[in-house]
Every structure is written in structure tokens, then in C-alpha cells.
Amino acid sequence: MPIIWRYLLKQYIKVFFLCLLSFIFILLITRLDEIAHFAALGSEGWIILWFILHQIPYLLPVAIPISCLISAIILMQRLSQSHEMTAFRACGLSLREVLAPLLIASFFIAALNFYIVSELATQSHLQTGLTKMELRTINPLLLLHNKHLMRLRGIFSDTLGQSRTGEYAGDSILAIPDKHNSSIHLILAKNLQASPVTFQGSQMTLISPTHGNHLPRHDALLVENIGEMKTSIKDFAQLLQKKVWTLNNDHLRLALLRARIQDLNKEKNLRGHSDNDRVGLDLVSRNLNRSYAELIRRFSISLAAFTFTLMGASFGMSISRNHHNRGLFYVIGLAALYIVAFFFAKGAEHQLVLSTLFYLLPQLIIILAALNMLSRLSKGIE
After folding, report:
1. Residues 118 and 298 sit within 8 Å (Cβ to Cβ)
2. In degrees rounded to 5, what are phi and psi of residue 111?
3. Per-residue pLDDT of the chain (382 residues; tens, 9 = 90+)
4. Least C-beta-crowded within 10 Å: which of 3, 238, 302, 375?
5. Sequence-distant (≥ 6) Cβ neighbours of residue 21 within 8 angstroms
């Protein structure tokens, strides 16, 4: 490897890792609310640490392209201000030869980013979701004490008496909506206690509506008084939770995502031969479009490591005597264009053509703008 390559790569990678660690720390701070909710489930300290560490693979695909951009800009600005770039050009090196090590390194970083977003991030997202569900199943009293989580499930709960999170609750009120109609079921309990295996209640009252779908609505209620109640933790937790686990596309590794696409294609072909199932065919088509869009999303966010490096290197370079930051405004504008288009594409994943356009067109614009800037710089025009 040439000495100049080693010098440039050393400076680029050093700033890259420094920016990467900084962005991981910043993005973890933005997820403190989710970490606090996880800690409120009563998990042990090492499980909370495990949960925090599993957030990192989910943050890396976002932090890596931004770190590539910043490191490329800082390196090119330093080479320009110290006149090292002028010395390189005076030695007969072209811009292509100077940028080659950075672009090659960014290509390998993009490949690594694709592996992270397709394998590590999907698994960490899946494992954290399963762990939260298991913790809520282990002790339903943790759910009763967490009013925010209960409201997310459409359940009202309150404890008027003495209580201790995860162990017991006195004078509890629990209102659970009926899944089949607009009525609610009311549970009053003098005392609730949870052990590792069982869930116990004493002096309980259950108030439920008795009307059926074929009867007119009226105030007929069924009141049931229970002196002592004992059930397994798992059974009672299912009452509180809407335990419907949906395996989304961002939970699937690349091989599993491809398998889902193949299954959806087969199902679409089968439904296409039937003229009586247009609704089902439309649903399968939307799911298939989302799966293809997820694949393109992973490719787009991985390619961003390369395109952002190219953008930072081209617009961070300066050949004029008077230093200015005009290139930074172009960088901010192009990066903002990519981010806005990325979120638009995420919201339009059921429309494959539109989402593909939003995912890939900003990348093409960035590449063309960077190549145009490099062409101008090679001719001495800034």
C-alpha cells in the first residue's frame, strides 16, 4: 500500500471512529425514554445493560453514513488548509488518486453497513421486542403499575391502597375493554399478589355486561364476587396483554426476508387466478411491495456510507486562496434531501415505485453533484 494511502486512511478512519462513538452516545440518549420503560418492567441490572447494548446495532446504520460524511469533510478541509492537497497535486497526483483510498474504504464500510442493517440490527430489534414481552408475562403487576403501558393497550388501571411494584397492590381497579363490542369489563380487588409462578387475588368483584350482539343495548350487568382467586402468571398476563406478535420486515434477516418475498409471490400468483378474492390479492400485493421496499431501504442506507464519503470529499475540498464554507451548505442541503426522501419512502412502502424513487433518486443526485464538483475542481474552478 502506498505511503500516501496509509496516511489518508489513517486520518480518515481515526475521525470516522471518533464520530461513530459520539453519534452512538447521542442516539442512545434519544432512546432514554424507551430504556426507562424497559427498566420500569422490573428487570435486573445486567438485563438492562443487555438491552442498552442491543440498541447499538439498531443505531449503527444511521450513525455510520453520517460519520463517513463528517470524517471526509474534516480530512479534505485539513488537507486544503494545510496546502497538503496542493503538494499532492504538485507531485503529479490527480484527484482520483487522492480520493481512491477513501472511496475504497467507504465501499467496504458500506458492505459492512449492509451486513449490520440486514443481520445484526434485525436480530437486536427482534430480541429486544421478545424480551420486553417476556418480562411483562413474568409479572403482570409490573404492567398494572405502569399506567403508560396500560393506556397503550387501552386498559385503565389504578391502585388506591398500599402497593409495591411487582409484588403486591391494594384496592386495585382494572377496566378492560371488550374486544367484540364497545363495552368494558371492570375488576375490583382488595389485594393482589404476584409470586414467580402464580398470581393471587382476594375479595375481588368482576362486573361484566351480559348483552349479546343480537340483543338491544341495555344496562344488564353480571356481578361476580370472588373471595379468593389463584391463577398462573402466564394466564393472567395474557388477559392484560394484547398478545399478538407481528413479525415485521425489519425483524427479518436477509435470507428470511427473501423467503417471505418468495412466499408472497406464490400467494399472489395463486390469488391472481381467482376473480372472487380481489381484497386478498390487494393485501398480498401491498405486503409484497413492503417487503421489496424493505430490501431497497437496506441497500439505500448501506450505499449512503459510500455516497456520503464521496459528497464530503468533493464539497469539503477547497482550492481558492480565501477559505470559505460554501461547500458545507451544499452538503447540508443534499443530506437533508436524502433524509427527507428516506422518511417519505418509509411512509410509502406499499407503493413500490414511489418508495424506490425516494430511496434511490437522492443517492443518484448526490453522486452526480459530487462528480460535477470534482470535475470543476480538477479544472481549477470552484
Report:
1. yes
2. -65, -40
3. 688 889 999 999 999 999 999 999 998 888 887 777 777 665 667 788 888 888 888 889 999 999 999 999 999 988 888 888 888 888 888 888 888 999 999 999 999 999 999 999 888 888 887 777 766 665 556 656 555 555 555 677 777 777 766 667 788 777 777 766 777 878 888 887 777 667 777 888 888 777 655 555 556 778 888 888 877 766 665 555 554 456 788 888 888 888 988 988 888 888 777 666 677 788 888 888 899 999 999 999 999 999 999 999 998 887 776 666 777 888 999 999 999 999 999 888 888 899 999 999 999 999 999 999 988 887 777 6
4. 3
5. none
d(CA 283, CA 301): 27
What stretch of H or E contains 339? helix 326-347
For CA atoms 361, 115, 30, 133, the dihedral sign is positive
Angle ∠(357,361,364) on CA atoms, nearest 5: 155
- CA dist 97 → 74, 75, 102, 141, 367 (Å): 19, 15, 10, 64, 18
Report field, pTM of the whole predicted structure over 0.70: yes
Instruction: Identify the three-state secondary structure at position 197.
Output: coil
